[in-house]
Records
---
Amino acid sequence: MYIGWIRQNILRCYMKPFKYIKLALISMFFLWWFFLSHVTFTVFPRKFEMHNEDYMVRYYYVLPTNIIGIYSWFFNYRPEYIVLYDKNYNYIGQSSPFCIRSNTDLLAGEHVLPEIEFTNEYDSSSFYISGGNCQEEYEIPTKTKKWWSQILQYFHL
């Protein structure tokens, strides 16, 4: 009886950290799914892309895999997000996953690609759309990544 009690307490002590690890992994998966899954996988590219000597921008349709994606498809005609790559097709960043607009709204503004040779702060150090809704949310900096780009960079290897 004493041996059984010792074995039970030892198992309880070793299993407690695994319980917290499992809870943390389930929580991270749920948070990723709820906030970022609609812009994670680039499976539906639009047939339009922009590029210059240094960078390339691709436009992708939002996936209706969570509440944000479903909402975007209900209230926008073909909602899109934008991903910025360098000339070697390495992921740099993408537009905000929380302000999604349709392709007709995105065409209203001028799409400006970054240039490496410019050093002035007002010149292109990031991709941006001038004019239109969600102008700031569709800006993709080339120097520092936003938090969602830091998370989603591992899905673009």
---
Amino acid sequence: MNEGFIAVVAALIGAASAWAVSRHQASAAHDQWLRQVRREVYAGFLATARDEMERTFGEVSARSAFTRLTAREWASAGEEMFEAACKIDRAAEAMKLEAPENLASAVDDFRAEVWLMATSSDVEEFRVSYGEVSHELTRIAALCKTSLQTT
């Protein structure tokens, strides 16, 4: 074979290899960036949801466990719970954008349960919902972890 031809083939092989390596590196960097974005969104949602569950809903649950709340106290608690549900709702919106379908669906179910709990007119019904919603948040945290490990 002609030496010039061999040099051209070698140069083409080298260029193709360099292109493939750069594509792989770019893809890996993009995947890493995407995981970081998801990690931040998941952490933000979980922090907001846990904070509101403990601070607002947990406090109302504890108060109602030991004393019978008056209608006025329950109405005041209802306002606090409405605000907490709004905060959780805003954090959940970002999850819908970044999460895979199974996680986004779990977050939607969680949001619906939070709103039912926040607008409950019955203290006992609220307290049962609080336990169920708390459990659902734990399940969502596990789904977040799994999602980050598989992407």
---
Amino acid sequence: MDAASIALGFAITMVMIVVGYRMRTVSHAILPLRDPVFLMLIAVECTIMILDYVGILPLGLTFVEDDTLFITDRGSLALLMMGAGDVGYIAGYIMCRPGDVLYLDMPDETLTYTEVAPMVWYVHNGNTYIMPQTLGGIVASFLGAKHPADIPTYEIARRRSCTFSNGIRMPMTMDVVPVSLHETETITIGVFRIGSRKIRDENRNIIAESPRYLWHPEVTSHRVRFSSSVTDDHLAFWVKDGIYRESIEDAIEAEERAARLEIQMQSAKYDAGADLVAGLVSLSTDAPGSHEEILARIEAERKRRGEADAEHS
């Protein structure tokens, strides 16, 4: 390997360091293996070698002799340049610290368990979004399926330092932000507008236009609120725990009371009918002849009203 090849490899490495550094601020992927640009670079390099091997793009990088694949000097140089570019890209990617990663300490619904997880946020056209850390989610975000977020980072008042190790790597320290609220909602948006649908009234006049989209992906909307303190006082925990349990008991009691009232309301009309029947039975039992007398009076009153209506008519 001559000095020119070494200088060329060094130059490619420096250039790719800048490219990788820049792409980290664009892709917002924590790992370079989930960066679409880096994966496309690897795919192009592999495609060049494959096309040269099959003879579609003869660059003289490889040749086959006695069913054995050999790499030429030109191929060795090409592989060296590709490796220098890949190493430079990864180095620049790792060196970049855009400040878009927040490690959030998020409690569950019972307030007895918390999960520390990274959340990558970025600003685009004045709006804040969350970047999912999957290859499909990152590509979809580039295409327009962005995940909106209501995350006021300027309200971060407390941080917690966590140090951990798996026993093999050196201890790693990260800043964790305690969170008091994290709500998510799945919504459907439209991407790639292809026209509009006209809405007309009964006179065929256009009163509105509804846009039509080629793609309707589902995205997740995030709402995050940060805690005002890192930890609670040991007595404050028991106060919060007591309030939480008391609220649950009150809610259960209210639900049971509402169920009882519903049952009473549904059975009220049957109870009224039962009381009426019971009254008639009591009359026939305790006051013999009263039942017939009441029926006779009702019949007489009906006849009287019928005669009065006939006179008026």
